Amino acid sequence: MAEIPEHLLKRAQAAREKAAAQKKAEGEDSAQSEKAEPDEEPEVEVVLTDENAEAALAILETALQGKILDSHIAPGRGLWIRVAIEDWRSAAKAAKESLDCKFFDWLSAIDWMPSPYGREHETEQDSVTAEPEEHDEKEMEWGYTGGETRFQLICRVYSISRKIGVMIKADLPDSDPRALSLIPIYAGANWHEREAREMFGLTFDEHPDLRNIYLPGDFEGHPLRKDYPLLSRRMKPWPGIVDVELLPGDEE
Amino acid sequence: MVTTESEQMAYIAAQAADARVNVEVETDEGMTLNLGPQHPATHGTLRIVAKLDGEKVVAAEPIMGYMHRGYEKLTEVRTYPQVTTLVNRIDWLGSFANEVPFILAAEQLMEVEAPPRAQWIRTVLFELSRIANISLFLGDMAVQVGATTPVFYAFRDREFVLNQIERVTGGRFHPNFDRIGGLKDDLPKGWIEETGTVIGKMRDFCDEMEELVLGNEIFQARTRGIGVIPPEVALSYGLSGANLRGSGVDWDIRRDANVGLVYDEVDWKVWTHPDGDSFSRFWVRLQETREACNILEQLLGGIPAGPIMAKVPRIIKVPAGEAYVATENPLGEMGFYLVSQGDLTPFRVKIRSASFSNMSITPWLLKGVFVPDIISILASLYFILGDIDR
After folding, report:
1. In the CATH hierarchy, which fold is given to the domain comprising A51-116+143-234?
2. Maximum pairwise Cα distance, chain A
3. B53: which strand partners?
């Protein structure tokens, strides 16, 4: 083995010491925790900031002039913005031109409708107890930057010079989910849009070739929609269900 | 009904295409060459339909989906710990590397951090799967341009690495070893020393490959200036990994956007090549294998002591939120966009696999090349079918 640089040895030593100290502290913790409540530790709220993402958001706001409906900054993890579907292409263009987001990462969609089959691991076939739970009608919950409709388009582009990734989201109308294709801006959007079309049943205008990419040409339905049943799952219980079964000691 | 001969030929071509049969037919518009789905150059079942004018490709289109397993749908009915078993099978040559971004995304939402020792061992196994994956590429690329010897060396030496992975995880190809909050097990006794020896062997393997392949006149003639991708085009198609660095773009997630792995603790270099041709992609991958050996050597000397598992609940529920974590996998950027609504199962998982984007450039890239170059270009882009079809 080649010789290891000294500064690394030092760092490793420091890490070892830290781990040992942590282990010791944990040992003490567990000794106390039998009588103490686990939630006792006061939670210190650390407000993380991300100047890089804030600067990027400011640039995008100037470039898009009030077209950003909502934004979210996850410190150190990137920037989320939501625009109206009419501004889908112009938002991507603004990201490429003003933020130097030349790297096209991926494009896809989300179906925010709660699955009508309930949570799949609690289907009738799987229920260990005799009474199957009734599924309450869940409301739609949107993720970061919110939403209004069932389908949301999402695209991630990355700026290598600024080291920031931008997630662009846009709500698609329920009745006729269609958007402008991003191919004139990012050539790589081609296959991603084909995939989004067959999986979610969206339409991309000005796309030259919207054939199925994975599924056979005569396939019916759009598999990644929440109301598309996973048939094998509905026919027989999933053997992995034992993994979520409670152990005797874990029961309340 | 009387039909002309050319009409008959066109009909046969259409029928064969529908039935997905391998056939070469000449029609008025030129010749259609069907490559695959079963072809040694496709690492699985990829079909390429190329329209030819003489020896020149007029248009080429990859047709995939033969191996589509619907992982994005399946993850919605699996609990979080069960998902690693699935994502293992995306890029099957470097399977441990597939688990890491998913686990990191889940950890990010749960606000759990793996203990230092687990992070170091994760990085060690990550780099080992990189060597196992890319060493096969080095041999395979030579096969695609007509040299059969190197691939046997590659299979022989890759086994040393796989043995090391097997000794830790119990699986040669599907370790399923990464857990939310840490790792399943600690390293076995004496493993670090043995891995040191294996790294030495892999260094020799790289030297051997350089001598056998890189300096070879035929290899250079087949790859230099073939399949050139300019950096702007590479970026707009979302190429990543060695394909992007082979076009001269100095970007590596391990250095520039590292999440959860300990690459900051070691001293290493990102290799780029300005040419953007098949040769440069091979060259970058060869250097990366060597660099992975350097990274490993430094990591193995400094694995801190301590626990390998953070405190996580036995039944894992991930709080609602969104996370996107990408890592620099052997094939390029692999990312998981994870949406959780606080349940036992993910709400939506978008898998950004490297080969899908890397392959999406082929219709552009194969236009105007000659037939034998289709194979060498595809080989140099280096894709795994499971990574395209997911």
Report:
1. Beta Polymerase; domain 2 (3.30.460)
2. 67
3. B56
In Å, how far is A11's CA from the nearest CA of chain B? 8
H or E, element range at A80: strand A78-83
pLDDT digits 0-9 by tens, B135-189: 988 888 888 888 888 888 888 888 999 999 999 888 888 888 888 888 888 888 8
| B71-389 CATH fold | Cytochrome-c3 Hydrogenase; chain B (1.10.645)
**In this complex, is the C-beta atom of A187 within 8 Å of any C-beta atom belonging to chain B?**
yes
Q: What pLDDT, on a 0 to 100 scale, did the predictor assign at position A3?
A: 55
For chain B, the average pLDDT equals: 85
Task: Return all residues near B138 (Cβ < 8 A) that are at least 6 apart.
Answer: B150, B154, B206, B209, B213, B282, B285, B286, B289
pLDDT score, position B289:
92
B240 and B332 in contact (C-beta within 8 Å)? yes
Domain boundaries, chain A: 51-116+143-234
The pLDDT tens digits of the residues spanning B195-240 come to 999 999 999 999 988 888 888 888 888 888 888 899 988 988 989 8
Contact B324 A156 (CB under 8 A): yes
Closest to A170 (Cα-Cα) out of A221, A224, A222, A112:
A112
